[in-house]
Design a protein that fits this description.
- The chain is mostly beta strands.
- About 0% of the residues lie in helices and about 55% in strands.
- The two termini are about 30 Å apart.
Length: about 260
């Protein structure tokens, strides 16, 4: 369900729903795009086997209070799992018509040891979908739980994408945080690591926030005991602050704080 409210969360109005006995809807996310003055909602639809999980989205004008069940197909193919959509929008008074949606992709009907992470530009004014952008090409990698900052400055400003990654070719490798800056056209402008660089700890399930070149990544951290590689529960939550200007190919890493 989606509801629009006033700034103080009063006058709540149901404006969109995705309810059926034919599939399950979960892992939804929302952002605002300033150019067309519209919301975008992205969802994961889980269909019965052998179909898999596909991605859909819905857009609407900021002041539209008419209930709807309309949607647009984003991505999906029979027998595969697309999951965990996260949406990056733009500032309310900025230019630009696009949102950026990041998601995890697995061959088959379950999370695998070779998950990939992708991004797609969505034209929110015209409800059209761009080509898939592979955020981290390469064989033997397990890339999971992608995140993107919810609000960019709009115009030509970038989004910051982050995910956790394990190299299956390294014995007892740790899960690392990888961060990549995509410009407004979806072109990579740099890639780097975040978090603790030591192989003795795992970093899980990052969430990125920030705009205007100043960002934070929050994530779970856990020791890396011998033989344990599952992307799972964390003992601690940490936040890594970093700056990343539009003219730099790499971030300036600042402090890491324990929450």
């Amino acid at each position: 369900y989606a509801r629009i409210t006033d700034d103080d969360f009063t006058a709540s109005t149901l404006v969109w729903s995705d309810v059926t006995a034919s599939w399950s809807t979960r892992n939804c996310d929302v952002a605002f795009v300033g150019g067309p003055d519209r919301w975008i909602i992205a969802i994961q639809r889980d269909f019965p086997a052998p179909t898999g999980s596909w991605l859909r989205f819905h857009t609407r004008a900021s002041g539209d209070l008419v209930a709807s069940t309309a949607y647009v197909a984003m991505a999906g193919s029979n027998g595969n799992t697309l999951s965990l959509p996260d949406v990056g929008g733009t500032d309310a008074f900025s230019t630009g018509d696009h949102a950026l949606v990041v998601y995890q992709s697995d061959v088959g009907l379950a999370n695998s040891t070779t998950s990939a992470v992708f991004a797609r530009l969505i034209d929110v004014r015209n409800d059209t979908v761009g080509a898939a952008i592979d955020l981290e090409p390469g064989a033997g990698l397990d890339r999971e739980t992608p995140s993107v900052n919810q609000v960019s400055d709009g115009g030509t400003a970038s989004w910051i994408c982050c995910w956790t990654q394990l190299d299956n070719g390294i014995a007892e490798d740790d899960w690392d945080l990888i961060v990549r800056r995509l410009d407004s056209a979806g072109v990579s402008q740099g890639r780097n690591f975040l978090g603790n660089a030591a192989s003795s700890v795992h970093a899980y399930v990052p969430k990125i926030a920030g705009r205007g070149g100043r960002y934070t990544a929050s994530y779970g951290e856990n020791p890396n005991p011998a033989g344990v590689q599952a992307n799972g529960w964390a003992d601690e939550i940490r936040v890594h602050r970093f700056d990343w200007s539009e003219t730099s190919a790499s971030p300036v890493k600042l402090d890491i704080e324990l929450v």
